[in-house]
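Here is one chain, start to finish.
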Amino acid sequence: METVAIVGVGLIGGSFGLALKKAGFAGKILGVSAPGTLEKALERGAIDQGLPLEQALQHADLVYLSQPISRILETLASIEPWLRPGSLVTDAGSTKAKIVGQAQRSIHQAQFLGGHPLAGKERRGVQEADPDLFLGRTYVLTPGDPSELETAPACEFIQWVKAIGAVPLSLSPQEHDRIVSLTSHLPQLLASALASTLAGRLGPAEHLQVAGPGLRDTIRLASSPYDIWGDILKTNTCEIEAALAAYVAKLEDLRAHLCSERMRQEFQIANEFASRLKQQHTCESTAQVRSTPSLEESTG
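Its structure:
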């Protein structure tokens, strides 16, 4: 892999470029974005050169699509004529089934391998890019068929995923979307719903003085922008509806047993799950403070 084209040089794309360089990538990194973004990306050192999409694709061994989901779908539908035969196209979209499906319909002379790095920040843009963003983070790969992970381009890409400190995990596109509907999309909607409910029921501003850190922690996700989440809701609707239905049923069950001994069992289950999640977070945090492995170390 000698040339990488990052299409969408924002937080994720910029961080990927910086992470590659920190891990020892000696090739050329091309950027495709708006002129102002490319200027900032060049200043940060996330890319080596900015080019129009068609020109960048013609040079790239790896095409990394880190745009919003709707833009990824549009890009996949149009880039086939400019792709180098034998190159690898991947993406960083947070839903996968529709993206993988579009790639299977549109990409033929290159290989597509869906991806979702579970990394990010509350602030967006290449100015927030961080070479350590992926350290210790799960990097989900979603091949249409498991054999797609065994091609030479895919193996090399997986080596670089490890080299930037991420932890590859293979899931089918459908299983990925089912899981993230529970672990990511449902929490977002719960936070938004809670904040929206309280906004309509709390009175004067001094009422907010009665809110402690627990509420602030619970509704932190409510600050997320709809321009990102609109695409997620539209491309994972069925799984999100199922997750919401399960949660609504749980709320109804809790309401029916508020004053019964049954609530003790529910708290016990919740406590145990929270402990497991905290333990997992601790393991990820420990991994993040380690130095990024070189490509040689990541491949053994």
